[in-house]
Structure formats: structure tokens, C-alpha cells
């Protein structure tokens, strides 16, 4: 089983090729550059590094959000296109779960993505070897509120992104989507025609439009 995995949820970008759940090759970046300019190129490069042809790929796995509206949409769009072009299954995984498993941390973990103005995208997992329990499903919430239910958890945060929340202690993490296949139950089979990102909240433009109606 050869999988192509994509995460463009935020500033960081992660592209990987796995064979039977184990990483063959991956490219991870953590700098500001438009993913639409780099994703297709990185896919070609990671396939070349792994000595895998597109026709060898058995499935696509894409991070479905939450995160940057534009970032999530780019990854999902490319994943849908490849799934239909190659006629192979498309699976999705929460962008927060990608963070939760990227360093191999076990125990109670709380991956966070800063959502500005004191809010976060957050989830709570208990990670064990090859298994996990979702204690709090991904949600958009004020960080002060989320903190009350996650006091004993290890917070995971990519501090290369803008951090606006008041947080004292956390573990710095960058997404490595190559790691998610250790937890098959986290993957959701999608219909490539119907699959839409999991933004968890409406965009500011949509909110402004609603306010003006």
C-alpha cells in the first residue's frame, strides 16, 4: 500500500510518501510561501525521492482542516484532483491530529492552532502506541475556555506561526503528516466529489456578509 499524504493547513507544509504506513520520503517546510506555488512541485519531488510513480499510488490522504482557509483549500483541492485523475481512494485526517502525532508524543495531548483574537482550534487526545482516544473533538473555542478542560495535557503548538494567545508552556511542533498512518482509525474515507474542508468556523468575509443582511 503506497500512500501520498498532504497537509497545507497553515504556513507549514508537509508532503510524504509512505509504504505500508512507513515513511519512504517526506518534505516538510515551515516558512511563508504560497502553497499554490509549491505543492505540486513538492509532490513531484517527493515521488522522485521515493522512486514512486503517480500510477503506483494506492490512496491519497489529505489534512481536512482546521487552519488557514486558503491553505486547507489548496491541499484538499489537489488531493481531490489526484484522487479522481488516478481513480484511487481519498482519505482525510484532522489537521489537529496531524500535529498530535507528529513528534511521537504519547499521553494526553492538546494540539493547538492559533485562530487569533484569543481563540484557538483545539482538540484533546490520549495517544498510545498505535491507538488513540479522542477526548475532545476538534473545535473552535476561546483559549481560556479550552484551557479549563485541558490543564493536564501537553500543549502542542507550531510557534513559527503567529501566536496571539496567552500561553506559558507548550511543546513546539511542526506537522509531519507521514506519521498519521500509525493510526488508521483516524482516517476518514471521503467522496472526492463531495469532500469539503473542515473549517470549523465561517470565514470573516462570510461573517461580514451575514452581518450586512
UniProtKB/TrEMBL annotation:
A GO term from the CC aspect: cytosol
Signal peptide positions (record): none
Domain Gcp-like: 24-148
Pfam family, one: TsaD
Superkingdom assignment: Bacteria
UniProt cross-references to InterPro entries, sorted A to Z: ATPase_NBD, Gcp-like_dom, T6A_TsaB
GO-annotated biological processes: tRNA threonylcarbamoyladenosine modification
SUPFAM superfamilies from the UniProt entry: Actin-like ATPase domain (SSF53067)
NCBIfam families found in the cross-reference section: T6A_YeaZ
PANTHER family tied to this protein: TRNA N6-ADENOSINE THREONYLCARBAMOYLTRANSFERASE, TRNA THREONYLCARBAMOYLADENOSINE BIOSYNTHESIS PROTEIN TSAB
Protein name in the entry: tRNA threonylcarbamoyl adenosine modification protein YeaZ
Organism: Jeotgalicoccus aerolatus
Amino acid at each position: 500500500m503506497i500512500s501520498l499524504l498532504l497537509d497545507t493547513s497553515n504556513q507549514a507544509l508537509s508532503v510524504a510518501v509512505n509504504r505500508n504506513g512507513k515513511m519512504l520520503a517526506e518534505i516538510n517546510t515551515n516558512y511563508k510561501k504560497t502553497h499554490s506555488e509549491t505543492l505540486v512541485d513538492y509532490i513531484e519531488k517527493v515521488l522522485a525521492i521515493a522512486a514512486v510513480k503517480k500510477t503506483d499510488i494506492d490512496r491519497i490522504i489529505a489534512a481536512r482542516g482546521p487552519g488557514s482557509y486558503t491553505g486547507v483549500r489548496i491541499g484538499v483541492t489537489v488531493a481531490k484532483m489526484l484522487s479522481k485523475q488516478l481513480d484511487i481512494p481519498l482519505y482525510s485526517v484532522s489537521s489537529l491530529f496531524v500535529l498530535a502525532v507528529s513528534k511521537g508524543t504519547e499521553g494526553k495531548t492538546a494540539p493547538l492552532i492559533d485562530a487569533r483574537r484569543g481563540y484557538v482550534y483545539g482538540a484533546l487526545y490520549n495517544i498510545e502506541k498505535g491507538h488513540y482516544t479522542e477526548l475532545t473533538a476538534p473545535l473552535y473555542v476561546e483559549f481560556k475556555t479550552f484551557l479549563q478542560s485541558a490543564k493536564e495535557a501537553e500543549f502542542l503548538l507550531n510557534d513559527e506561526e503567529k501566536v496571539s494567545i496567552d500561553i506559558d508552556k507548550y511543546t513546539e511542533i511542526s506537522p509531519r503528516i507521514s506519521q498519521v498512518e500509525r493510526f488508521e482509525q483516524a482516517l476518514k474515507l471521503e467522496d472526492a466529489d463531495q469532500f469539503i474542508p473542515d473549517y470549523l468556523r465561517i470565514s470573516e468575509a462570510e461573517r461580514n456578509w451575514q452581518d450586512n443582511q
